[in-house]
Amino acid sequence: MNRWQMKPISLMIITVLGALLIALIEIIIKDGSDGTLLLTLTFWVAVIQGPLVVAAAADLAQGKWMNPIKKDLLAFYPLILFIAFLFLILSFQMNIYRWTIQPGKWLNSEFFIARNFILLLLSFICARLYAWAAVKEAPRKGFFTVLYILSFIVVQSLVAFDWVMSLEYPWMSTMFAPIFFMESFFAGLAVTALLSVYFSRKYPEQSSSFTKVMRDSAQFMFGFALAWAGLYYGQFLVIWYGNIPWETSFFSTRLDHSPYREMMYLIILMLFILPFLGLLGKKFKTNRLWVSVLAVIILLGILLERIFYILPVTPIHFIYLVIEFIILSVIYLLFFFNREQVVGKK
Amino acid sequence: MKNQFVFEEKQQFLEQLERLVKEGVNPKQITIFTPFPVHEAEEILRLKTSPLRFFTLIGALSGLLFGFFFTIWTSLDWPLIRGGKPIVALPPFIILAFELTILFGGVISFIGYLLLAKLPSIKRIIQPAEYGNQFVIHIQNEGQK
User: Fold this and answer.
1) How many C-beta neighbours within 10 Å does residue A64 have?
2) Which residues of B touch A236 (CB under 8 A)?
3) I need a surface site. Which of A111, A163, A251, B135 has the fewest CB within 10 A?
4) CA-CA distance, A92 to A34, in Å (whole number)?
5) Which residues of A are less than 8 Å from B85 in CB distance?
6) Do A241 and B92 touch (CB under 8 A)?
7) What is the pTM of this model?
8) Is residue B114 predicted with pLDDT exceeding 60?
9) Which domain holds residue B12?
10) How many domains are there within chain B?
11) Residues with Cβ < 8 Å from B43, sequence gap 6 or more?
């Protein structure tokens, strides 16, 4: 028995303790660095929903390539509920949004917290139904798959528009939501690649089937790097052409100042140039070490991008951020190692 | 030796192909017919990588350079200020350079494919046998073309 494996009740207690510890940091210990929780939430909601949507998309397209790993990706669905409860802590930090000074019909604290919490709950229910249907191969699996993908798109759109974009209110970009849900998918593929590398090492007798999953994930990561660059450039070009002051403010506050300008170059390097050039060759896609390194670079690139959005607006406390990331990483790994209890045995 | 094997299943086809290569049949004498691309077969036959990729690389790079050269040259040759932007404004030129990279890469790859496959040639296009969904291994005898 793996030392990470535990009884469902112990898993639940650890998760609740993790949430309480984050709540303690954010409500009692915090010292004005209110962007920390928002950064943790925006990053982890992508990493938690991503693997599920990769599995759902493959299911919907009847892609058999990810069958060896599909059920393992479903193990993360209860964490959507965890994120929903962590999101409630944000109600103590609404001062990071400047629209709270003059609330509107859509942007007011109560409605903001309520709609996002309810949508996260709905997404959790959809993910639960999809995971159940996928494991049991239930006849209505297709319906639940579509339902989860829809809930994913709505949640990620609100993460983009509500959680992050409204920090810069009244700045807006309609491309923000597609970028966010594509990045979550991208993160999901990176997690898929990492898991397939892990399984191919752990089960050498089934190494060839997991290596195939890794190769296909690497192929998708290559494609998504290009798609990411296209979407991001599409957003930038429209704003650059229009040259309207209230539209350009978002980029001018970042690209005119160091270190955000360098951060932007680093994000392009991590989310486009490295995965694109690094996964172009056939041999690179089958090299476990190389694929794992690139998958980690992609995840770090997504984290850096979220910092790029949040840090110019509100401060982030580095030590609290590290603590929150350690808590979430441990819980994430616990759910993965206890996947048989979460989604049922293979 | 039997010179043609027909299978309904991909796995049996791959096993037979591996067996033939291990028995010492020269991969150059083997012709395979599959209803869809089977990459494992390429790995078993260890065929020499086609030089087609160099056509693609040269085409793509020439497209990229031409895209930048053409947009910058025409802007400087007939300078018109558009939307208050500089005469040589790289953001929109990147799109043209990207499009031409794909266009040149694609067209030159196709030309390279025709050259390498010695096409167009009626003899090479027409395949007398039709195998439908079957996986076929055909071994050419020495001297047979």
Assistant:
1) 9
2) 91
3) A111
4) 9
5) 243
6) yes
7) 0.86
8) yes
9) 4-49+128-139
10) 2
11) none
